[in-house]
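hiii so um. not sure if this is the right channel but i have a protein structure encoded as tokens and i wanna go backwards to a sequence. like what aa goes where. can anyone help
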């Protein structure tokens, strides 16, 4: 049967390899002058096969079964050809054969997707983002092990209920390294990472439908904290008996006056310290998280911290701009610093970055567009959250002013009319 000028189907039996007068039944696909043969895994009696018509002759039960098989096979092969054409894929005798046998549609699993994603993004994502993905992937494997009693799951089996089940599982799961329940926003982040991997699978046609179509992640907006000028000063004035606390305090204050994250501070070297067009010192680097360029003119307090450690063995040995320390130790030492400063806010380098955006810059009239560039944000809307924080601070300051004014005694007012009794003026008399 010829369906187009480049595609034809022919059924034949291999008479050269007879066994008990039965020959193997084959179908030949010809496409663009190239052909392939597929065994139909069926034997046909040689004496009932009609080669010219490519079918079994007669009305015997065997002949009817053979002809029915030929009709079904012809229909399936033609459908494979049509599907490949509609999908815009390369049409060849080999591709039609693979589609017919199901060899072009591997039953990909979640592990296949994880391995493909990690290999594809090994040099694209930074190591910290990859580490977050590894954590998510570990939780996913734990989920299917406990809820599905298996070590892997086919991607085509992952539906909306799988996603909802994952959310429920994470809400009640206590990781060994964490020893407490995972927070709501952290759960949403894990689900977002799975969604990105599933979207990748959809784009490379490993799955035909997206199980996330109906799922709407709900990120709870948290109020971003920051330090006041008074709190910054309290930390700056601390004196420590050990160098370890002094170093972490200096790194924290440096972040408060530059907005540079802890991870990016640890990567700074003398090469990142440059003289700007204004003749002043600038930090020029890229954010490790987004690779966005960052150019920051240094304020005097940040400059003094750099000068303090310029010839320190802790910077010379690593060729770094500031002393290096692990994130774990830095966070532990910040707890001690917080206690000594008697500040009722958890000190983190995220807080220092927020402090730069609010107390140091925005509260002093630096425009949001400039702050966005200084922080290395990809979008201005990411920076706009700080405007709301400062608005709240302004509101609180105005409330204090109102309370102060309300506490002051009101003056007595005497009214004095002129002879016509029309115009008048006020005389204020303090109580």
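sure thing!! here u go:
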């Amino acid at each position: 049967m010829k369906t187009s000028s480049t595609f034809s189907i022919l059924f034949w039996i291999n008479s050269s390899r007879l066994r008990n007068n039965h020959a193997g039944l084959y179908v030949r696909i010809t496409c663009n002058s190239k052909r392939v043969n597929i065994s139909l895994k069926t034997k046909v009696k040689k004496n009932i096969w009609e080669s010219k018509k490519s079918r079994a002759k007669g009305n015997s039960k065997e002949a009817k079964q053979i002809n029915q098989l030929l009709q079904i096979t012809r229909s399936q092969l033609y459908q494979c050809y049509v599907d490949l054409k509609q999908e815009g894929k390369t049409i060849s005798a080999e591709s039609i054969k693979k589609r017919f046998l199901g060899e072009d549609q591997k039953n990909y699993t979640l592990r296949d997707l994880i391995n493909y994603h990690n290999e594809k993004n090994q040099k694209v994502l930074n190591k910290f983002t990859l580490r977050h993905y590894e954590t998510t992937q570990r939780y996913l494997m734990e989920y299917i092990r406990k809820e599905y009693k298996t070590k892997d799951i086919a991607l085509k089996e992952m539906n909306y209920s799988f996603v909802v089940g994952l959310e429920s599982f994470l809400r009640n799961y206590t990781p060994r390294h964490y020893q407490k329940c995972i927070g709501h926003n952290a759960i949403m982040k894990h689900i977002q990472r799975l969604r990105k991997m599933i979207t990748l699978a959809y784009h490379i046609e490993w799955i035909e439908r997206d199980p996330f179509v109906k799922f709407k992640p709900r990120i709870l907006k948290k109020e971003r904290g920051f330090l006041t000028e008074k709190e910054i000063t309290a930390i700056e004035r601390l004196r420590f008996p050990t160098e370890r606390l002094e170093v972490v305090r200096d790194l924290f204050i440096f972040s408060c006056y530059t907005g540079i994250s802890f991870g990016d501070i640890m990567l700074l070297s003398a090469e990142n310290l440059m003289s700007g067009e204004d003749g002043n010192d600038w930090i020029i680097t890229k954010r490790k998280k987004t690779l966005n360029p960052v150019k920051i003119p240094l304020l005097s307090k940040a400059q003094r911290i750099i000068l303090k450690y310029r010839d320190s063995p802790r910077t010379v040995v690593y060729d770094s701009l500031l002393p290096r320390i692990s994130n774990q130790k830095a966070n532990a030492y910040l707890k001690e610093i917080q206690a000594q400063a008697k500040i009722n806010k958890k000190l983190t380098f995220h807080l220092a970055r927020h402090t730069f955006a609010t107390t140091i810059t925005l509260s002093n009239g630096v425009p949001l567009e400039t702050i966005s560039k200084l922080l290395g944000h990809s979008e201005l809307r990411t920076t706009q959250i700080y405007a709301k924080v400062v608005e709240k601070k302004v509101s609180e300051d105005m409330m204090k002013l109102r309370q102060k004014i309300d506490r002051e005694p009101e003056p007595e007012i005497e009214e004095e009319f002129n002879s016509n009794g029309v115009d008048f003026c006020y005389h204020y008399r303090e109580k």
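oh and The longest strand covers residues 34-45.
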